[in-house]
Amino acid sequence: MFTIKGKTTDWELVIGLETHIEVLSNSKLFSGASANYNPTIAPNTQVSMVDAAMPGMLPVLNEFCVEQAIKMGLGLNAEISRKSKFARKQYFYPDLPQGYQISQPAEEPPVVGRGWVEIMGDDGKPKKILIERAHLEQDAGKLKHDVHPTKSFADYNRTGVALLEIVTFLDTKNPENNSYITSPDEAERYLREIREIARALGVSKANMEEGSMRADVNVSVRPVGSNEFRTRTETKNMVSFKFIKSAIEYEARRQIEIYETGGTVSQDTMRYSQSEGTTSVMRSKEDALDYRYFPDPDLLPLEISDEMIERIKQTMPELPAATRARYISMGLNEYDAARLTESTDISKWFDTAVNGKSERAKPIANWMISELFAHPENWDAKNAVDTSEQGEARIITPENLAELVDMISANEINGKQAKEIFIKMLDGESGTPKEIADRFGMKQITDTGAIEKAVDDIIAANPAQVEQYKSGKVGLLGFFVGGVMKATGGKANPAVVNELLKKKLA
């Protein structure tokens, strides 16, 4: 269990996360404007009259965004509400043209109800993190403060893009139920799991760097062993795993210091300084009452049929948790399985290379993680094509890597030769691994007679070392192996070399 040592006692953390993911769709949640707000697009060119809140403009719900929310809910093992409502959440900010946000109020059932995701807890055991709800809402625009020395500008291209807000659940009625996040590391694991589920389902890019995934982080502390839930603070709009972990730890220590000096923590909204790694109060935390929710008069209640849910279920791919379990059953460890499920494209690439042959799984995983991941320019998880004919760096395909692994397994090449072939492929050498091996004479010598002659020659040429080996200096075996490998140009099968040397030097 993660704890922080205070002056008088040890403290533990209670962490809640409100994760916002941009829903992938062609158009916005309530208008037909493009949902593409890429920064390369000119500001305020993807804005409809609805987005700009022109008088008389009426919102029309995007059915595809609802389907995406349902799909994500199913991925979160959550209940799907058959009926839900949209309401106006009142607050005023320059990047919100309407002066309110169309969202789903906390007191009403959202599209997605109670659910859970499983992560690895700090104790190394699987841990379920409970989800309270996930609701659809509009995104706001973006303010730009660095365009002009004295003015700020608003870009409304992002205004109205569909957001799905996923909120973790704290079971205050059963305080002994610890199905919530209790450390910075668990927070990161939870967010990564949310990200991979969203990507696997095609619901969102969930890319923190571009802002299509961000989190509000709620933190409170209590003495170790206590079941009390104390006042929490909320740090807004965090867009980096690293900074989220830093903000959690700093905020926890700040609260501990307040309690240990006799003060009380107030329910505030915080900002995080990336340069200083600190949190500071931005404003008093709003409650739902402060937003003055009321039903949006322009939108009918949202009704979802069993048939619609069943249809969406039929389109669901294998989720990351199931893929990891399948990889572990193939002999991979948890780390390898986690790396290979960082995206659906990587998983598909790995599965294509393995091609149902479980004996390939571990060596292919090793090559991907230790070599391919270090050369992202030389492989394409989405489009495994060979572009060497166009004079570009060679794109290594799943079939290439599978052939290389099979050649090692069949003792056609050794590990050193495999690495040389791989480097040549990275450098743009054309052809398959077998063709490259033939072209450069890199096939392994497996003829026992030829290897035995080289072994006899190295033994005959080094009588002093032979005597030393026989007198107990067994480390000299490497000397003889190196001599044989040099004599054969590195082509001898190392296993055969070792076996023959041990037999002849006995």
Describe the structure.
- Residues 384-392 have low confidence and may be disordered.
- A hairpin with a 4-residue loop joins strand 13 and strand 14.
- The strands form 4 sheets. Strands 1, 2, 6, 7, 10, 11, 12, 13 and 14 form a 9-stranded mixed beta sheet that branches.
- It is built from 15 helices and 16 strands.
- It is elongated and about 95 Å long.
- By secondary structure, it is an alpha+beta fold.
- Helix 2 (184-201) runs antiparallel to helix 3 (241-260), helix 7 (344-354) packs across helix 9 and helix 9 (398-409) packs antiparallel against helix 10.
- It folds into 3 domains: 3-309, no CATH class; 320-439, no CATH class; 448-505, Arc Repressor Mutant, subunit A.
- Helices cover 34% and strands 18% of the residues.
Fill in the keyword field for this structure.
18% strand; elongated; alpha+beta; Arc Repressor Mutant, subunit A; 34% helix; 506 residues; 9-stranded mixed β-sheet; 3-stranded antiparallel β-sheet; 3 domains
